[in-house]
Amino acid sequence: MRIGMLTSGGDCQSLNATMRGVGKALFNLFDDLEIFGFEDGYHGLIYSEYHKLERSDFSGILNIGGTILGTSRTPFKQIREADENGLDKVEAMKHTYRQLRLDCLVVLGGNGSLKTANLLSQEGLNVIGCPKTIDNDLWGTDMTFGFHSAVNIATEAIDCIHTTAASHSRVFIVEIMGHKVGLMTLYAGLAGGADIILIPEIPYHIDAVCNKISERYKRGSKFSIIAVAEGAISYEDSKLTKKDYKKKLVDRKYPSVSYELAAKVFDKTGIEVRVTVPGHTQRGGSPVPYDRVLATRFGVEAAKLIQKKEFGNMVALKGNDVIKIPLKDIAGKLKTVEPDSQIIKEAKLLGISFGD
Ligand code: F6P
Hints:
Oligomer: single chain
Strand content: 15-25%
CATH class of the largest domain: Alpha Beta
Shape: elongated
Radius of gyration: 22 Å
Helix content: 40-55%
CATH topology of the largest domain: Rossmann fold
Number of strands: 11
Number of helices: 14
Mean pLDDT: 97
Largest sheet: 7 strands, mixed
Order of helices and strands: EHEHEHHEHEHEHEHEHHHEHEEHH
Bound molecules: 6-O-phosphono-beta-D-fructofuranose
CATH architecture of the largest domain: 3-Layer(aba) Sandwich
């Protein structure tokens, strides 16, 4: 049995834990096994840069963040384009796979990476996907590994801000990752006790945000914490065409959505506003226990799919069970926050404003 493995896209805390799950289970399932790790994501598969992974390589990495293989972003829309030397990337990946006589390629990746995994599967390669991303925005799985570790860090950031915000009677904005999806911000905002949570799925009205701050101020809470998703959008901007909004982002004088919001809140309320952006710290450090367990389970189930030759699937969490779902059914689909979902209604009943 000859297996290839790669980690692609932005890293997250339990990539190593997942590879450990796959590797350890495979070594227990097959006597005659060789595993090849491709370096820096699809780059390694395209340019045949890989090394053999021994059983010992999967030891001692359960709690180590990052990825022992390295990763890179290879946007799906560029995958069909030739590289600067005219190399056809898809053909090159197929060539590497065949030259190494692989029986299966295991891809640990998020949305774009699993789209490429699906493409390779449709091109005839045996592929298994494992759902990675701190954003938890992959359709078809209740949870991706990395999400809870990142939420933990974002929550700690809000916790730290709480004490200083209260001492200074300031408004604090904490900007949370998640790309175009607000799940991380929703979870960290709830866990950190944010007063206002702004997510891309619920465009905000600046007056609603300021009213909430003023209302709290009048009640004696002179500080407010706003958890803002990096992809949050105002109601006015949500009415722009995609093209016009993109242009606005390029032209705006603020480094991110939070700084623009801070300026607007200060203009309207006169209260001091500070912005904190934990940024890539959210993808760093050790995985939390939840992610270690989820990653391990995903890894083991991926190995079982290989044993059963059930290729072209991604492992996914449904309730408490790890299931398989065809890559073609999930490729290119985004999981977002439903504005009418139970969790949003619960948060609203608690008094949290979403700026709507
Ligand atoms: O997809 C994970 C993620 O961390 C997003 O939350 C964020 O928008 C993006 O990656 C950042 O990407 P990069 O590491 O390329 O700056």
